[in-house]
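Handoff note, outgoing to incoming analyst
You'll be picking up this chain. Sequence as last confirmed:
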Amino acid sequence: MKSRFVLRARILSGIFILAAVLLVTRLYFLQIVKGEQYARDAMGQYIAQAPDTEERGDIFFREKDGTRVAAAVMQTGWRIAIKPEFIADAVGTYMKLNAITPIDEERFTEAAQKKTDPYEEVAFKVNDSSAAEIRMLKLPGVLLVQDKWRYYPGGTLAAHAIGFVGYQGDRKVGVYGLERYWQDTLAKKSDGLFVNPFAEIFANLEAILSTDPASHSGDVITSIEPAVEQRLEAALDGVMSKYSPKIVGGIVMDPRTGDIIALGARPTFNPNTYNTVSNPIIYKNSAVENIYEMGSIMKPLTIATAIDAGAITPSTTYNDRGFIMKSGKRISNFDNKGRGVVDMQEVLNQSLNTGAAYAVDAMGHEQFSKYVHELGLGEESGIDFQNEAAGFLQAIEKGSEVDYASASFGQGIAVSPIEMIRALSVLANRGALPHPHVVNSVRYDSGIARDISFPTQKQILKPETVETVATMLTTVFDKALMDGELKQEHYSIAAKTGTAQIAIPGGGGYYEDRYLHSFFGFFPSHDPKFIVFLYAIEPRGELYASRTLARPFLDIAKFLINYYNVPPDR
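Most recent structure output, in case you need it:
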């Protein structure tokens, strides 16, 4: 008898505990998660919600200490609508409304004249205080309608990465950047405030336990650091102002993890006013959607693969006559001059095209082609942006000698900036190929955040190979680049410039006066925390990238070193 009583007591206790847990969980969602929504609904009382409003997850930047900073949020407010048949004094009504919040007079007048229309909207994005004043006036025929809209607190900051929300037909969706790529995660399925509490609890439990965090709606948290993004964009503005390129862009990445810490381009736009942009091409993310012949920043990869294959060493020499003949065509150094007998270090120091071609011949064309493909050039990187362009490697797939020679110094093959920085990161990541990404985690309504998992990095080059090349590139920065003017006393930096001729569309050769400038560097050289890649399309006034991009790179590097308190390595 006693055992039955104890059993019943335990069962009842379990039921009460379960009920209490469910009640507390429900109260958490009512008061914390949806408290603001209930408060707003109470404020509106009988006033309807606009039919095209939406619930949408937020996008966050992430400061170096992990603090989240809003990059894209939903802002709430009101629309003003009228029922024209009830507007007896259109002028008086307009004057009273306009005294509280700006209203387009022409729009209001035209709307008020449509006496057969039951509903006309005359103002948008009205704040709560203005709405409260209007509500107190009790104007006949005037309605306040709950509104929500996408707002980007940073304005132009990281605009190409964030993108914006626009209309697709009569539906609001992300149309560029993260807003588009993460549309399914950001678009929250709303069943209103009155939902089954058990269904809500178990839906959140399912999201927490899911093997794919992105498959459930929530906020997305990026690896973009707003202070670094600001510094990168300031550097890009400086290049744009001084050299007037058609496009200038840059990427800052952690080469070990693939975290994109900053990504920007000029010209740019403000996603809050995207509809004022006259040329939609500005919306394109040139770092991801465009491919270019990158030029001499390919040479470190060429030298590295030849060293890795055992075909050369830094001290390997060849006789540089200033040009070579391949497939009956002449390939020359940038200045058409020969240096005599030089080693591979000098090939990088003086950026000798003939030396890069020599390295490819030494390892063999098939081996070079194999390395290029393993480095991910010619394929999408998998970064979380729509419309990523895959590189164009047809030149080294046809097997012509002149094409292999050209590819050795970055001409004849075209890749996107994101492909290029990923490949170059192998030199800063102990020979492994990282997976570039912008979003690190998804946060659900429950407040719990889940990290995104990425594939295992593939080893491409031997660690000892990249150590050797890092030393060679450090010598380039310390001694060869601008005659060592930029060398840092307490920090080692590995870097290389690139100046590439721009191809004439349709296969008509190259322009004589149009160039792509590029610059990459990682630091500290043998324990890299950052890799920075800059590019400028058709800059004016300077022929070489060392003049246009070296100092902006160093400005960014110094900022990163100071901002992250990177310890000196020499």
